[in-house]
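Below is how a single chain appears once it has passed through the pipeline. First comes the sequence as given, then the structure the pipeline wrote out for it. We keep one example in the README because the format questions we get most often are answered faster by looking than by reading.
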Amino acid sequence: MTDRPLWQLSARELAEAVRSRATTAREVIDAHLDRIDVVNPVVNALTVVFHDRARELADRVDAARDAGATIGPLAGVPFTVKENIDLTWSATTSGWQFLAEAVPGDDATMVRRLLDAGAIPVGRGNMPDWGLRWDTDNDLFGRTVNPWDPSRVPGGSSGGDAVAVATGMTPLGLGNDYGGSLRLPAYAAGVCALRPSSGRVPAPMLDVTEPVSLSLLFFAVNGPIARTVDDLDTAFALMHGADGADPSATSIPHPAAYDGPRRAAVVRDPLGWGVDPQVADAVTRAADALAAAGWQLDEVEPPLIEEAATLWRKISTTEMVGAFLPGALPMPLSDGSTRYFLDNAAETEILESGQAYGGAWAQRAIVAAAWEKFQSRYPIVLGPVSARRMPRIGFDLSGPAATTELWRDHRLLVTVNFLGLPSVAVPTGLDEDGLPTGVQLIGPRNGDHVALAAARDVEAALGTLTPVEARVAGAVG
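Resulting structure:
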């Protein structure tokens, strides 16, 4: 047991401390709830906090351990659950006022599997309504604050969970990623996130009674946010696999280690469209870390990034047009999400005919085949999460041109979604303004363990950045 406060420990460290009787589950949960009570009023990352339920579950863990029963691998470890992932303790609102009372009847599979491992939910993570922005703000719960710089967005849509992890309110958060919604807020917060391969983790909601769009089936995944790559791996190892409910979920072995070719393609400026100097420096630091760990690096760009990013935008916007235009929903979206969507649609070619829409999906096979061939030589693609540092609050609502600028900045981010590939976001230190920098390590299809192995090598060289305290404390004043 270290002399660090319990809220600073990783999920693995906490689980070992409970298992070895160095502490109790109740002490772990109390430490994190106390931390939440201090920090959450400042950053507004958690929408609901489960003080009583969490303590009750912690007492059960301690009683089972003291009775000599076998406890789960994450017994006593806190975690948070994004507002669009089913948890029977509270409404699955998706940050939307219309769903403020929508309490699900069952836990999502990913939640249930962590519960079965002894982990304890302590709160719900904030998000933009319906996950529609690369920011975290809504009319139901308000804005989540970036703990490193309150003037900048915390990313989205899993921004609440990322900030909760970064500030020590939890060592583990659950989110999802349709267009960077795990990796972007992790990048903003200086933590790690795993966007698994499509189909590896079952859907966040079990009660599906309406048709689901193709882009949700192919682009969206669910995964963990944590402060260490080992914790990502631990959570994913528990959460993945078919569940007999999600028809797109598959069971594929998750190796504990990677012993394949250690070759990586380094992409400093995808498509040559430009990146901030701090972003380029972060890629260099990560590349140096991989090289020192024995990876062979080549400065080479994967194929058809522009096609992938463009098709992601066209398909996703086309599918949302019918659902999200004002008046098409039982209750409107927030003003911010409505403005962002309309501005984005104004700058995007809508696939109005069935032939155009079907053709876009058919083109995906060409792009995917090119990447499959490329990654047979380069199992890892190292590149930026975003081409820019996190923008200031309001940038994404400053007009149609801003939505296009953000999409261009996130071109490699959404390419991963378009192709359904695994990717780990990992921090790479602070820039000259003291803001987190980071990269993503993209693995081959179903090679989640490959991406995790490369990220672990980067983390070993460059370290971790969180929990962060100083600027949270400064924001209080």
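Confidence is low (pLDDT under 50) at residues 473-477.

See the next section for the split statistics.
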